[in-house]
Structures are given as C-alpha cells and as structure tokens.
Here is the input.
Amino acid sequence: MKRQVLLVVNPTREEARSGALSLATQLQAREIAVFQALSTEGEKIAGIPVRESSTTINDFELVIVLGGDGTILRSAEMVRSSDVPLLGVNLGHVGFLAEIEKNSLDEIADQVAAKNFTVESRMVLSFAHHRGGKVISTGWALNDLVIEKQSPRMIEVFLEIDGRPLSKWGCDGVLCATPTGSTAYAFSAGGPVVWPEVAALVLLPLSAHALFAKPMVVSPNSKIQITLLSEEALLTADGFRSEEVKLGDSISITKDLATVNLARLGIAPFADRLVAKFKLPVEGWRGE
Here is the structure.
C-alpha cells in the first residue's frame, strides 16, 4: 500500500500555502501520496488532492502542519484518538510545538521519506464543567485551560486539590497547563518551564491578590477543582475553544487518558530548543 501523508495548512497565510505545495511536490517525487485537509473555510490549495471522505486518520502515517502553534493545536483534534503523529512546520514567531522552520522543506521531505523521525507522546488535560450538580460539558487541552475574567473586575475562585480545600483567590484568572503548555501562556504569566517528559500539571493564578498565589506543580494523578464565586468568567481550552462559566459553576481538571503524538526530526535536547527559541545567551559555555 502506498504511503500517505496529510497536510494541514493555515489558509490565511500565503507562505503556508506556497510551502504546502512545494512540500507536496517533493514528497510526491519520493513516492509518497499527499492529501490536504480542508480548512474550516473550505479553502483548497490547487495541485494537492483533497482528503477523501472515506478515509480515516489512521490511513495516514503522518500529519504535517504548516502554520504556527495555533494551527497545530487545532490540528491535534484530528489525531487525538489515534497514534498518528503531528509534525509542525513553524511559520510563527516562537513556536514550541512546531519541529522545524519552513526554509527546511527539502530536509522534511528527505526525513519523512526515510522515516527518520521519532515520536513523543504529550500529556493532555481533561476537564468537566459542572453546574447545579450536573456535568454540562467536557473537553480537553494539549496546552492549557484558562478560566479568565470577561470584564475589568477581577473574579473570585475557590481552589480544591484532591478533594481538599486549598485557597480562595481574587484574580484575573486561573491557568492549568501541561508540560507542553508550560512554554505558552503559562510561561508569559510567570509559570515554570517543565520538560516535556515530566509528568505534571502546572497551576497558577493570574494577577492574584493573595499571599499564597504562586505557581504550583501538581501530581498528574491529582484532581483540580476550581469553583467560580463571582458572576461570570470564560473557560478557554488551548486558546480557541471557549464557553461561559457562571456563578457557582465548577471546573474539574485531570490528566486525560489519551495523548497527542508529536513527530521530531532531530534529537536535540529540550534545553537546546529553549536556547534556540528564546535566543538565550550561552556564549562562553565550556562543555563538550
């Protein structure tokens, strides 16, 4: 059976469209069938066949995403229930989910053709939204879940961990992140950077008015529950799936049973990725 790869492209970016066509041509020259997933706007890239409705995600050995981390997070939805990995091609500014830059399309084609990539399983968060004693919705996040104010006034929340009360916070919001998400919103909010292979949940208040309002690293087996004590807030998963949280609602957060697989073309240590992405000053290092 001929090998198949699925391309997911940010249709709003011309460099993603042109890069997808170039990459598809190179993969096809290496006897790999390439299909494109339709965007939510239904836009197509001429020259690349559209994925047939009869196929499943398991018919593909790899999903290649051209865009920033936002495009990759949206694409995670299609592979979450499978073992098919995502390979991100970075077109954004600082991306940690994307593996490689667009100017390396030749390398991508060569490495994919040779199956010269490794797969990392990344932890996923699961949440349940409770109202009036009932679960009204459930969801998940690869990066983070954020409960945030919708007006200039701060919100008030009550925090429980493993069924025990921990604290009440007046704050702009509360963020719970995976190790993958620790380099995203959580990082800019002052949270710790957690190595991807570490099993942990990161929990931190956003601009909280409290003595005990520090970032926390919680066991991946713990259950976090956040109850809203003020009028309204917004729950957002991975920056794009949102729903309203009302007074008295609670959000329970746990590690999900499923994972998302990310493909890596190289074996660069995570520390090297941090140095490259943030242009960290390492001149004068005397190591080997």
About this structure: Helices lie at 14-29, 69-79, 105-113, 185-188, 270-278. The mean pLDDT is 91. The two ends are 45 Å apart (CA to CA).
